[in-house]
What we know:
The chain is mostly helical. It has two helices and no strands.
Amino acid sequence: MVEVYSxxxxxxxxxxxxxITLSENQKKQIARLNEENxxxxxxxxxSHAQIVELQxxxxxxxxxxxxxxxxxxxxxxxxxxxxxxxxxxxNCIAQLEQDEPASKTI
Length: 106
């Protein structure tokens, strides 16, 4: 009878050790995945900032192009460029209005 309890106790200790090892491995994996997640989020933020900056430069170039057309006396071309800029602004505003509820939940 004592031997049965001893074997059961040994098996229980082995199972506990296996669970502890498994738990430690899972904790390490969670920490690694959290770090990867944070790195990915930081990369997304950097990329987003770069996109915003490039968009500002692009918009400035478009406005400068419209001004050049106007300075050259090509009023029709300047009006066309400005109309395109205004249309893009309106599209951006519409998109922001659609995205507004989603951004509040994030």
